[in-house]
Amino acid sequence: MSALIEARGLTIHRPGSAETVLRDVDFRIDPQEIVTVVGPNGSGKSSLVRALLGHMPLAAGHVARRPGLRIGYVPQRVQIDTAMPMTVRRFLSLPRRINDAEARTALERTGVHGIDRRQLAQLSGGQFQRVLLARALLHRPHLLVLDEPTQGLDQPGIVAFYQLIADLRRDTGAAVLMVSHDLLVVMRASDRVVCLNGHVCCEGTPEHVSTAPAYRALFGAEAQGALALYRHHHDHAHDDGCLADDGRGHAARTHHA
Ligand SMILES: Nc1ncnc2c1ncn2[C@@H]1O[C@H](COP(=O)(O)OP(=O)(O)OP(=O)(O)O)[C@@H](O)[C@H]1O
């Protein structure tokens, strides 16, 4: 199969009930693609991701993963017991032991080199996300799966994180499947966007999704902003690099749309 993961007719029920969380969803992700799943709270984004990974039972449909597919997964929530001291270095060796060189390379790649002796509990939100990403990269995944990777980051942190994702895709060739709420930035970072609300409302290139009535109905004013920003990025070139430099999507929109 050419897709890394391909799903057809996925229907998922809320665990322990017959209530439908996702209905008749088709999905695929190809090598080196960046695909982002957007949708309101409770729309089934995390459930879709878990089903694609085989972590959730299906009520109907099927999922095919390419044989031998290596996946690096960063879940939405990672429980860290702050009462139990653990260094970054030790965390990277769980569950599979790695050597110092591998740890160093992974941390360098995600922009947090030199923090291997630090305690996890002492890291900032942004540093912790990058450590999680470093751990996901250790086993040279064909596919990185990131569920809400920028939760808790400020706007410049979010922009920097998406830049890192784009760099990682370029450098490692890994495809990226992301769940995200950061509409403005996601529109620039993705090859394809899937808009979910219990089913696939619309999907396609960021520009296509931005203009889809279903997407606008779900996200309202924020959707307009995403479109403005996307058009701003693609209609013309200029050298002030406003979003990348100052991290303010709104400023870009106000001044250049
Ligand atoms: N383990 C679970 N037990 C019971 N209900 C669940 C469980 N996991 C998900 N659900 C329900 O399934 C629905 C979809 O949840 P899901 O986490 O997939 O949505 P989401 O789009 O990722 O939401 P959010 O943006 O808030 O993270 C919700 O109504 C949620 O309450």
UniProtKB/TrEMBL annotation:
InterPro entries: AAA+_ATPase (IPR003593), ABC_transporter-like_ATP-bd (IPR003439), ABC_transporter-like_CS (IPR017871), Metal_Ion_Import_ABC (IPR050153), P-loop_NTPase (IPR027417)
PROSITE patterns listed in its UniProt record: ABC_TRANSPORTER_1, ABC_TRANSPORTER_2
Pfam families to which the protein is assigned, alphabetical: ABC_tran
Keyword annotations of the record: ATP-binding, Cell membrane, Ion transport, Membrane, Nucleotide-binding, Translocase, Transport, Zinc, Zinc transport
GO molecular function: ATP binding
Top-level lineage group: Bacteria
Gene3D superfamilies in alphabetical order: P-loop containing nucleotide triphosphate hydrolases
Annotated ABC transporter domain residues: 7-222
Name the UniProt record assigns to this protein: Metal ABC transporter ATP-binding protein
Organism, as annotated: Paracoccus spongiarum
